[in-house]
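Q: What would this chain look like folded?
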Amino acid sequence: MLHYLTKRVLCFLLAVAITVSLAVSFFGVVSVYFVRSTDYLTQSLADRREELKTDLDDEIARRMPQSKFPSEAYTAALDNTAMNDIITTTANNIAVQNANDFSLSEPLYNTLFKNLLRYADENGVNIKAQQVSRLASLEVDVISGFLAQADTENVALYRVCRDKTALILIAAAVVVAIVSYALIHIINDGRHRKNSYIGMAFVSAGYIEIIGTVAARLIHASEKESYCGYKVFDAAIGSVANQIMGAQIPIGIVLLVTGLFVLITNYYYFWKKNARVNEQRRRNTDMRNEYMQHYRSVKGETKTITPGERETMDIDF
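A: My prediction, written as structure tokens:
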């Protein structure tokens, strides 16, 4: 009995190990995929272009000199081309954990210089190209100074998911799942009982993925997090975190359905096996009854011995 209980407890613990490994490995793979591709962060920042532009316009209007150009000229110079460069560069800086420094950004400088020069030509502003160049450089510094306040070097989500440790953790989880499955198979001698533990592990992992994601969304966990200290960037990174969590729901559903399929298939196997055993027992009983009926018809009824009654036999010498 103790041996049996030990085997069952060990199989249960191995099933728990598979559950945790499945949840960790799938969550890790999805996180690494979303974080290592800058496309999702770039799109998330692009969705907040107007909010970012408004903040930059306010900073530019506050800090740029108004002697040659009005503030409208500087804000107009920050057109879609310049914003696209800022968004793309920022996404890359967050992803690779670099400071968000634009002071040496030639694309941004060239865009601002051309736009300011065009504004001067179209509005009859008497200014030399060298002065426009200095103002464009100053505007780049203003933009860079504002954006550099965000701590893009230490965004935990990107630091963890882009580190080799994340890949090692995923690989370790996969190895634990495989080893645990092999041990369950060995302990149960390859019999179908093992599928009960495997199915339970998949169902539990599916529940963890689904319930964990729903709970995190209900409390708005990703939206409350301050990732780098600037609200627009925080919202963009939080959107990526939401996408990572959202991807866990279909994965959880797949795991849940897979586990239920394994459990139902295993139950059907045992149900059919039990039905075959019962049918065999019924046939054996019918055959025994038929034999006894035939025996009684030939030999007559046998005397039923009452328990405790002494049976005597007459011996004819």
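The radius of gyration is 38 Å.
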